[in-house]
Every structure is written in C-alpha cells, then in structure tokens.
Hints:
- The structure holds two protein chains of two kinds.
- Chain A has helices spanning 2-16, 21-32, 37-44, 50-89, 108-122, 136-139, 174-182, 222-237, 290-295, 312-320, 333-339; strands at residues 126-127, 133-135, 166-168, 187-196, 207-217, 244-251, 254-267, 270-273, 278-288, 304-311.
- In chain A, the strands form two sheets. In chain A, strands 1, 4, 5, 6, 7, 8, 9 and 10 form an eight-stranded mixed β-sheet that branches. In chain A, strands 2-3 form a two-stranded antiparallel sheet.
- The radius of gyration of chain A is 41 Å and the shape is rod-shaped.
- Chain A folds into two domains: 2-89; 108-339, 2-Layer Sandwich (BirA Bifunctional Protein, domain 2), CATH 3.30.930.10.
- In chain A, helix 2 runs antiparallel to helix 4.
- By secondary structure, chain A is α+β, with helices and mostly antiparallel strands.
- In chain B, helix 5 crosses helix 6, helix 6 packs antiparallel against helix 9 and helix 10 (411-417) packs across helix 12.
- Chain B has six domains: 2-38 and 157-188, Phenylalanyl-tRNA Synthetase, Chain B, domain 1; 44-145, CATH 2.40.50.140; 205-397, Phenylalanyl-tRNA Synthetase, Chain B, domain 3; 405-468, Phenylalanyl-tRNA Synthetase, Chain B, domain 1 (2-Layer Sandwich); 490-689, Bira Bifunctional Protein, Domain 2 (BirA Bifunctional Protein, domain 2), CATH 3.30.930.10; 703-799, Ferrodoxin-fold anticodon-binding domain (Alpha-Beta Plaits, 2-Layer Sandwich), CATH 3.30.70.380.
- By secondary structure, chain B is α+β, with helices and mostly antiparallel strands.
- A seven-stranded mixed β-sheet of chain B has the order 27-31-32-38-37-36-35, with helices on both faces. Chain B has a five-stranded antiparallel β-sheet with strand order 6-5-4-7-10, with no helix packed on it. In chain B, strands 14, 15, 21, 22 and 23 form a five-stranded antiparallel β-sheet that branches.
- Chains A and B meet through helix 5, strand 1, strand 2, strand 4 and helix 8 of A and helix 7, helix 10, helix 12, helix 13 and strand 27 of B.
Amino acid sequence: MSDLKKIKNELLLKLKSKLNLSEVNQMKSDLFGKNGLVSSQFKKIGTIAETERKKFASELNIIKDELQDLINLKIKEIENEEIREKLQKEKIDITLPERPFVRGKIHPVSQTIDEISSIFSEIGFSVEEGPDVESEYNNFTALNTPENHPARDMHDTFYLDEKKERLLRTHTSPVQIRTMLKDKPPFKIIAPGRTYRSDSDQTHAPMFHQVEGLHIDKDINMGHLKGCLNYFIKEFFELDKIKMRFRPSHFPFTEPSAEVDIGYEMKDGEIVIGEGDQWLEILGCGMVHPNVLRNVKVDPIKFQGYAFGMGIDRLAMLKYGINDLRAFFDCDYRWLNHFGFDPLDVPTNYRGLSR
Amino acid sequence: MKITFDWLKDHLKTNLKEKNLLEQLTNVGLEVEGVQNLSSDKELFTVAKIIKTIKHPNADRLKVCDVDVGEKEFKKVVCGAANAVEGLITVYAPPGSIIPKTKTKLVVAKIRGVTSYGMLCSESELNLSDESDGIIELSSGYKKIIGKSYFSKSKSNLIDLSITPNRPDCLGIRGIARDLAASGFGKLIDFKKKKIKSNNRHSLKVKIKKEKNQGCSIFGSCLITDVKNTESPQWLKDKLISIGQKPISAIVDITNYVMFDLNRPLHAYDADKIEKGIIVRNSKSGEKFTALDNKDYKLEDGMCVISDHKGVLGLGGIIGGTRSGTELDTKNILLESAYFKPGSIRTTAKKLNLDTDAKFRFERGIDPLSIEDGLNKAAILIKEICGGKISKIDVKKIETHKTKKIKFDINLVEKVAGFKISTKEIFKILENLGFKFKKKKFFFELTVPSWRPDITQEIDIVEELVRISGYDKISIIDPIKKRKKSTLNKSQKLFHFLQRSIASKGYLEAITWSFTDSNYNNYFRDTKKEIKIVNPISTELDVLRNSIFSNLIIYMNKNLDRGFKDLSIYEIGPTFTGSRPGEQNTVVCGLSSGKKSRLSWIEKERNVDVFDVKKDVVQTLIEAGYKSEEFFIDNKTPNYYHPGKSGRLFLKKNENLVAAYFGEIHPNIIKKIDMKTESLVGFEIFLDNLKLSVKTLNDQKNKFNVSDYQKSERDFAFIINKDVNAQDLINAIASVDKNLISNIKVFDVYEGDNIPESQKSIAISVTIQSIEKTLNDNELESITKLIIETVENKTGAKIRS
Lengths: 355, 801
C-alpha cells in the first residue's frame, strides 16, 4: 500500500505547483494510462494473496477515485482560470454610451383625452365623434341658438361659405345633435374633439379641444349631473378632497344651466387645486333644453337629462402645470418632449390615470 | 354691467354686508367678474385748476404747470397734454396715489430735470373711458369743489357683473335688486311712480310707418320746452362716476341715469332741429347720417331709422345723430322712449359694426311696458334740474304687447332639480320675481312679467326657482359604475392603437391647426380641392388643410431652425376634402428628418430613408392586426413624394383604397421652402381606408399549428431586369407551395460588375419545411427545381450559376 500512498503524496505535491492543462493531462496518463502507475497497481491484484486481495482492491479503488477527483478538480480549476483570463482581456469601457435610441411621446392633450375617456368609461359613457366642419343648423339652430341670438356673439365663428351655412364647429355640442338624431334614447356619451373660434391671443387659440357629455334617460336630474361631475373632477385631478361649486349661468341649449368652479389656492406662484378659497371656472353644464330635445325628435315629457362641456386643453394645463395654451400647438420639440407622455403610459382604470 | 352697493340700495333694503352681496350675486347667476375699490384708491384724485403754465426748459412738448389743488401753495406739475392750458379745471393725482389704468404708484419725480409733484390725469388713466388724448376737461361748475375728491365719497366699490344674454332686465340696477330680494337678500323698495301731470300739448307729430319688418313697434315721447341744459347736480355726477361713467350735461346724464337704473334707454333730441315731425321708418340704401360718435354711416335698405322730413336723425335704439343732438344751449327737447325689436337692432348693428349701451339692451329685449315709466322719471328730473315745461306723453304703437301666460306644474321642479321646494316657497319666489299666478285644476297659470323676454315655457320657471333657491340645494347623486355599451368602437380603438404605436417608434406627437397656409397647402394638395376659410384669423391660416404634411413641415422647419437635426414628429387628425360636414379623413402623418445614429461612437450614421418610414408603416399595420403577406405595394404616389423613392400600400392586392403612402418628400418642395436637412421622409396612414374586421383580433388568428419537422434553408441568386420588383420574385416563390415554403427573405441586392447594366442580382433565402414529415433529399431537390423554374417563367429571371 505504501506505493499507493507515495503516488498520492507525489501527486498532491505536483498539483500544488502551477500547471497548464497539458501537464495535468500528462500526469493523468502517467497515472491512469495503459502502463500508468495506478493502472499497473490494478494489474497486481491477481498476484496478491487471496486474504489480502479484497482489502487491497478496495483500497486501490478508493485511492484511484481520490486521485481522479483531484486531477479533475485541477483541470476544472485551470479551465476556469483560462476563461477568467480570457474574459479579463476582453474587458471594455462599460461607461461608453449604449447604442442610440429615440423615444416618442404622446401629446398632453391626447393623454388627457384618454384620461377623460377612461374616467367616463367607468361610469358607463361611450365615446362619440362628429365632423369638424358643421352646418350652421347643427352648431347653433338645433341647439336652441337661433340666428340673431346674442349668445352667438360669444362664439367667434370661422365660416366656409359666404352664406354662413358651413362653419368650423365652435363647440362639441353638435355631436349631441348628431347622436340623438342617429339613435334612440337613452343616451350616455362623451364627445371629445377639436373646436374652433376665430380669436387668438395669449389665452385663446383659434383651435382648442372640448369634451361634451350627454346623459338622457327617463329620470336623470340635476343631482345626477352634480354627482357625475363631482366624480369626474375628483378622479381627474386624482384628489380625494376638492371643492366644487355650481352656480347659475345661461347657455341656450341647457336649462337650468350652471357653471362649475373648483377650489384652488396659489402656492409659490402655482395653482394648487383642492380646498383653497379661490374659485376657478372649469366647465359649463345644465339640463338639456326641451327645445333641443324636440329638435332631435326626443319627447321632453318622457326623457330628460344633462349635458356638459369642458375645455380639455385647460384641464391639461391645470393638471400638468402648463402655463401657456399657445404652446400646445406650437410643436416645439423641447416642449413636446418635456410635457409629452410615454406611449406605454396608457391611462386605464386598473393601473390608474398616471404614474 | 357695473353697479355699486350704494346704488343698489336705492332699490333694495338690506342690512347685509358687501361680502354677502358678492356671494349672493354669484349664487343667483349674476356672476361677479371683478370688484374695484374706488373709494379708498380714488379719494386722492382731486379737482384742480391750472393757474399758470410755462414751457419746460428741457423739453418742447412738456409744460410746467402751477396747479391749484385747494391747498395754500400751488403744486408744480409737469404735463405733456396739449390741452393743459391756464384756467383749465381737471383732475389731479398726488404722489402716493395709484393710477387705476397702469396700477402704478405715483412718486415725486424729476422729469427732464424739473421736479413734478403728481400728475394731471386723462380719462383713460382713470379708467373712465378710452379717451387718452389730453387731460380731463371739467366744466366751470367744478370750480366750487377744487381740492375736493373728484370721485364720489361713497365707500361703495365698483362691482363688475357678467350678465348672461338672457337677462336684459338685469342690465338695470332695479332688476338686479329684484333678483336679490327674491333670493332673500333684503327687500325690494317700492318704486315711487311719479307721473307727469300736464295738459300741455305735444306739438311734434310722430309717426311709425307700417312697413314690412318695421323694427320699432312703440314710440313714446314727450316735449320739454324752455329748459336750461346745465351741468348735473353733484349727486347725479357722483352716481354716474361711481359706475365709471363720465358726466356730460344734465339732459344726457339723466337719460343715462334712467337707463342704468331701470334698464330703460331714452334718447333726447333738440326739438328745434327736428324738421316738422318724427317718422320712424326703414332706411333706404344709400342714406347717410353722422352719428353721435362723430362717424358717418351709410345705410342699407331696411334699417330702422328715426327721421324727420329732411332725412335720417338716428338709428333707432342704437345711436342718435349729431344733427339733432342736445347741447348746452338746447332749449326744447323731445324725449324718446321706444321699443325696438331685438332682431332688427342686432342685424343693423352687426352690419354697421356698431356697439352702444342702448343697442346692447335693445338687442336683448327691453321691457315694452316701461315706456311711460321711463319718460315720467326722466322728464320730471329734467324739469327739476333744467326747468321747463313738460308736454303730455304721446305713445304711438303699431303692435300691442301680449302678456305671456305659462301653464306650470309644480312637480316639474323636483323632477328636474332632484330636490323639493315647498309650494309656499315656490310662490313666494315667483311673486318676488314679478310673476302673477292663478290656480287651475291641474296646474297653475303664470303671468310672466313684461321685463322677462327670456321666459317662454315651463322649464324657464323651473330655472328661476332652482336659481333663486340656490344650486347648493342640489344633492349629489353618485354615478353608478355600470357599462352597457363598450366605451370605444372599433375605429376609435384603432385610432388609439395607431396613435401610440407610431409614438412607440420614436415619433413625438404634435397637434397642429386644422387650417394651414395656402402656400404650403398647395405643395401637398395634389389633386384635392382648396377649401378657403371666409374669415381667417390671418393669411397664414387661410385654408383647411388637405394634408397634415403642410403643418408638420412648417413646424419641422422651425425646429430645425432651433438647431435640432434628427427629428421625428407625427400627428393624427383630420384632413379635409371638401367644405361639407363629413368631407374629412382621419390620417396619421409622420415626418422624419436628418440622420440615424448621428455622431455615434458605435453605430454607423446614415440618412433616414424611405425604408425607415416603410418599416414604421408596415410594422404599425402589422401590430394593428393586418396581415403583411397580403400587403400590396407599388410606386404610384401623390406628387409631393419623390417619384422614385416612395410607395403606396394596399392591405390586399385588389383593394382600391390606399392604406398608406410613404417615401421621401419631393426634393423640389424641400428646396422651395428652404429646408436645411440631409434627408426628409414621411408617411401617411389613412384610418378610414383600413378595413375594420367584425371579428375580434383573437378570432382572426389561425389555429396554433407549428411543425417540429426539420426545416431546410436554400439560397437562390437570380439575375433579372432592373424594372422587375423584388416583390414579384417573392410572390413567385410563395406561389410554388404554400404548405412547404414557410419563409422568404431577400438578403442581398447587387448591381454592377459581372452583371449586365440593365440587370440586377437578387439573393433570396427560402425556408422549406413540411408540417407532415421530414423532407428527404429528393423532395428538397424537386422543390428547389420547381422554385427556380417558376421564378424564371414568371419573372424572366435567370438563376445565377
């Protein structure tokens, strides 16, 4: 057995020195090759006395396994070291920039429209649309604003013909008319879209966005209107507490009519929506005028309900702290990039409106 | 409409404070737009007299004035007004006062080396009017109060109300007081109706011509003879000044006062300047007159004019004329109180672009029963102040006023408002608003007060009741979270999908006007009709856009000017094909400029090209659920694309609606608009041309069926004529065996050495795989042969050996 121990000790000694793979392989064949040191010990087994043989064989096997393990381990070690060295040489400056990418953005108005749609979707409104070019009838007359009505003064209208029969819609309300003419009640719709008025200054743009709401059914009253808008305002501004005030106003197409104010205060020169003691007007609404219902062949004795209209751009400005309305349509790369939203930020009910 | 609490108190008895008043005004629908503190700020502005003026030593246009401000010593004030002459009585602002117009605080200051102690004011500086030409000229009557405040001593603030167009009655202080009283804010003071007691003959003949569309239905008047027109007494001046009006003369001031107080516009003529009599008639085209605003107006047919036998005196209910205007030396006056029809007033005023206080009131509807009240109140005041004799009142009418009656079911209030108002309360409110009512069997019959032209039906009554009771009584009914119909329809879902899909490819979403500059529009109009806006806000926005490119390119250019080079922007929105409703399309339009990977240490930079936008279009359509195998692309594109580097895409071969165009923008356009960029490419996807499947996307998918049998790739190189498209080769290969050919890829295109000049080489890799078995060599060999044969036969290509 001493031979074996010797072999083992020698091997252990050799393995301690720095070796390369071929040297280790050489050692391996020196031990386990056809005439290797270990192999030749096995050949001895037959010559050993029967009483000793079993013990010898078993010890030999143990040593053999041990030696093999040691060598394999060494091989692994060397291989790992080689890979490590190779990879070490491949090291790069990881602080160099990544490959170029470009990022697109969604315009804040589009984002706001999606937010509004998401909120009203939750309470059963569906989205309707109408054309940007409207007839004078749909834009005014059908909405109980006959010719020569002073309320028309408030709408500086772009006309497309000299007879003033075709125009760019001054509000989204004609979608009410189209929707009610097309279908039968009940109606529960919102209609976001582009609207146009021919004035242009710091706070007015010749084109802006409105969203119209219409809910007509058998017993919809002003309490439902208040409830709907109260819900919307809290959801939109993502605030639990927000003061809201209804005050009487006048629109030809609703009666009674109201304007809605929300509470705010100024903090460090910025508007903070919520519970401040200042009031900010954000929308107009009211119960749809019976004349309007008659104009679209809906019986005002059987059906009633509310309508509202609000400025989307203004809502976006308030929510996202944008000061200048004109910038919405100026297409300045820096502005779009700053105020725009990632296309993956889709406002939904379950993940919330915003991050 | 401007009011003061003090003036309101002429009509309203109340103990409440101004703060409550402001709230209550808003609560009843008379929105407070602003409150100006007149008293404390303006008390400092005093009546003053210029004693002496000398030319400023260092400035030709300036004068140094010695001003008597009621103190021992005169103040030295530097003034530039041409009318600052010795003896003028005007308004002086001392250092420390705040000029209402500019909100700046005056300080003692050196003006060109001369110290000025305060300032002499123009009307515009005091927000009295727009008159900024020269300083205020006060009449000699003010001599008595030099040194005293020019503004009334009332502590009442000026309250600016925004009166909605349905409420002409609230264009008079009394109407506002009535609303407030009805809402419980005090009590309306009874109107002491003094009546003219006179037996004097009204010697001026008045006639309303019965013509078609006669704009005047009632013309009341009285003559006041032997008056001495003078300055108004202080109380009247104070009243008018308190609401921002400038006193002129007693007669004018009195008519204005009655108008603001009772919403009863009046007009005073110099009776001696009226030729024979008054004729109210329609104007004839070409008639002219000079109005009190000192402008000449040329009239069209059918405008309601007040005339005499010589010609037009004034436009009824809008503006008087200079020929018959009253002046300080006027002796005899004709006082008019009439009813003009709103429509007629509005049409005339719009045509002539005239806006006056009277017009504003008449076009909204004046109380037709206020004719005599107005005459009585004004005539008696004139007599008190200017003396004279009043004639009997003469009222000419061609129509009689019909009292409106409305059937009213009180249950409607709760049905609409959602809350109950007690019957007792209902009638208290209505009575306070001036309604009369009679109980009938199932309803009440209400008589509408004559000053409420806006009230014509039951719902108007409901509004009055809810408004006066207070909108805060409406309770909140929380919405039910239930959806009966999907929020978006298929096309709206597609809109949203495309919008975000394009953005995800690196494009910034822009929103630009639906109108554009016709010059730019013409570049992208192609064969479409130009749609002009009749009244554009500027010549640069004079047409509706036929394509979104016009605006995108304008803004792209602005961004390039800002120093950005590599930009991708897009817009999704309408383009127009005609001026009728519905003649519009929804288009996604994108534009990319410059280079990809500019100044990258790792990627090779290159210009953006047609295949970048082709990728964006194709990828977007595939993502939206359309099958790329079915796409058909050719090179017929509108004239604003590069004719050789652009394409159009159909969702299917024999489709006739174009799904998208893409390509380089025509170099001529880039040159014309002087755009500096290495490359400009764009695309348009036409939403309305994309077929919407009735099936859901999930139902459109084939069964999940994949083959695990071995696949083989075979490469082919064909030589073909240059005018043959790669797509033709691909189609030919695909037609060989749809079950075995699973993928076809063009991996090289080569023109040049070793290839005839008119030809090119296209290398294609084809994946062959069966879903039934592993193909053996023979089978592979035969399909390879078949591919070569088919391509050669169908396209004239030759396999490259």
